[in-house]
Amino acid sequence: MRGIGPDFKYALRTLARSPLFTLAAVFSLALGIGANTAIFTLMDQLLLRLLPVKDPAQLVMIWSNGPHMGNNNGDRAQSYPMYQAYQKQASFFSHVFCRYLDSASLSVDGQTERVISEMVSGNYFDALGVKPAVGRVFSPELDDRTYKGHPTVVLSYDYWLNRFGGKASIVGQKVLVNNYPMTIVGVSAPGFLGLDPARSPQIRVPIQMAPIMTPGRDSMGEYRSQWIQMFARLKPGETVDTARGKLQAIFTRQLEYESTLPGLRTASKYQMDRFFKRKVRLEQASNGYSDIRNDFGKALIVLMSMVGLVLLIACANVAGLLVARAVARQKELAVRLAIGASRKQLIRQLLVESLLLSIGGALLGIVLSVWTIKGLIGFLPEHGTPLMLTASPDLRILLFNLLLAVLTGLLFGVAPAFFATRIDQWNVLKDAGGAVSGTGGGVRLRKILVTAQVALSFLLLAGAALFSRSLGNLKGTSTGIQGMSNLVTFQVNPSLNGYTVEREKAFYQELLANVRGLPGVQTAAVASVPILHGWEWDSSMSVEGHQNKDGEDIQAFMNALSPGYFQTMGIPVLEGRDLRDSDIGDDVKVAVVNRAFSEYYFGKGSPIGRHIGFGGGPDTKLSIEIVGMVENTLYEGPREGVHRQVFVPRFQSKFPGSVAYYVRGSMDTKSMMAGLREAVRRLDPRLPLYEVTTLENQLDQTLSTERIIAALSIAFGCLATLLAAIGLYGVMAFVAARRTREVGLRMALGAQPFDVLRLMMREVIILLVAGLAVGVPSAYALSKYISSQMFNVKVNDPWLGLAVIGLLAGVALLAGFLPARRASTVDPLEALRYE
């Protein structure tokens, strides 16, 4: 039997003789395959890929639900004492280990930079089975015994290469971390990024050094402080379900012990009942944990569904082109059958041509996917942490691309191949033209393909309309802040440079005064929590005259501000006054509340002069006087809406650490940012400045998920509509060509051009209606799966559906009108001589 090699050679020659057809098919497939490859590349890195560690399937993540009656710092956070309890008592784990990701200042040879650091337990590397590339990594014996007694650093492999040139002599070198002397003891193995596939720390430090790494927030011994993330490795024979039951028993005993400590003595019976009902959560962690994954995982799944539809439309388009080409090649195929070729051989030959087209589309699609991924990564917020996602395809992506190419080639090639080989040799070889068998079948098949394209295009356009309106609603939500495009924000954290609390307070005040004195600056202020950032600081509150009820939400979102904040942000003071310099002290004595807080607790009455206190227990001191009420503003972002808020003075020893500056000026923002950097540099050239942007850009980053989905759904919807329009144009041109003799006869018998035009457009309308008859119910049925992604949008909004139908109908009618118009102007004599 002849090998497949000659088929490939013949296919290459055949495709080379039809360059326009080949380019059109390859480019259509490249768009579909490239989009699928791009989204799959990000899905693989964020959702699918296992951690490059020893036996990743044995890794689990531990956290708990329910009220912990304390403060919380991060997702799925736990207290350090709870970690210690698990480590001592959970014998069904071979390792229990923990981590905490934060930023730090690293000084080497007099140069200081802001780096991403990770505090880890001493058994972190042992538990993951990660070896050093140079030097050593941490161990329980050397790096997890003494509080504040392990000033050692392990560098990540990439940071070692980029910052220290890959020099082995770096081991043993002294550096300053947060202005505290530490020693570099090693470099972690290449390829190991950590437990987060999207963000990798540049340095790791033992968690016993927490007082140095998180100045002012030492929570090592605090039961009510949730801040570390906890992981474990299952022993052989253990499963997630069996371990969960055993772990719950330890967790419950720990809760019983914590209930005897002073921090819970003032809690009510209702609060304690809820506290004891907390459950341990255990989840497979073979691919780590990532907040980027949590934020964008659903978006990637939605986008993967969309690009799958785009690929189907591209396949339908190319299949339509192959059907038309098969009609043109009927005589060639008939001759080959007549001289002894079997139908099986011809089908194989045609499928080889389809596979070559799809492989060409896949190769071009790889290039398009790299560009697409780079654009997608640009949408993702970094928040000062370098993203480790890459646009470069690896072996897994190349295999996915190849598999997709093969499946695509078969998908669009099989039906045209079977159609093309169903030939009436007798009529074809007699050159009987329009009587050739299979002509009607070719038209029917292309019409079915176009109907499918219209239906799929409607799905994508409807999705694009919904996501676009949702994004518009989010961006159109009033933030309560005026002129955000002219409001520059940046963050600094002098505590990471070893500042004492008193020195830090003096620095903040001096920097604020200097910023206010810059040319073009109108006003400036400071806030402890950057707004529209997704971050939060909340606290339960007790309010004068209000009796807290069981189950009542008594949380208020907090911020600590400098005087002048409301003026800088353009937030109206509705009643009372702003914060003043005289309010600043070691204790919080006054506060400003927002309208939502006032209305909840005081109705239409005035909040001025009323008293509040931190905490919800009966013994809470109501020592804070409300001196002002301001208009509502957004805190985390538009999706979370307006919260009850309480604002207190900023420059106090109670609130050390990072702050966000807000500066409003009359100059362009680039010049203002340069002046702000210089103002910080003059006070401390070693102090890194970060998150420098306008508040408008910050809002865009907060809505990055919605922006990605909306932008790409519009792009994919437009692409799908264009491909469907091309397909419809091709069908109508094909139909018009096959009916040329019929049109000439009709016109010779007295038909007018308008009659021919109406006849042809009737075909277009039938195809359009058939496609919509499939697409509209399908879109309605699928809409419930994306409803959770919407914001103030009805997924079954009839007006939105009509708008999409109108757009698709307009494009379809235009695509069909061009060949129909050409057919209506044909010369009857020429038409009767056709073929």
Automatic annotation (TrEMBL):
Principal localisation: membrane
Bilayer topology annotation: Multi-pass membrane protein
UniProt cross-references to InterPro entries, sorted A to Z: ABC3_permease_C, ADOP, MacB_PCD, Macrolide_Exporter_MacB
Transmembrane regions listed in the UniProt entry: 20-43, 299-324, 350-377, 397-420, 448-467, 708-737, 764-786, 798-818
Cellular component aspect of the GO annotation: plasma membrane
Key words of the record: Cell membrane, Membrane, Transmembrane, Transmembrane helix
Residues covered by the MacB-like periplasmic core domain: 22-249, 481-655
Pfam families: FtsX (PF02687), MacB_PCD (PF12704)
Record keyword Signal present: no
Gene Ontology MF term list: transmembrane transporter activity
Keyword flag Transmembrane helix: yes
Protein name: ABC transporter permease
Organism: Paludibaculum fermentans
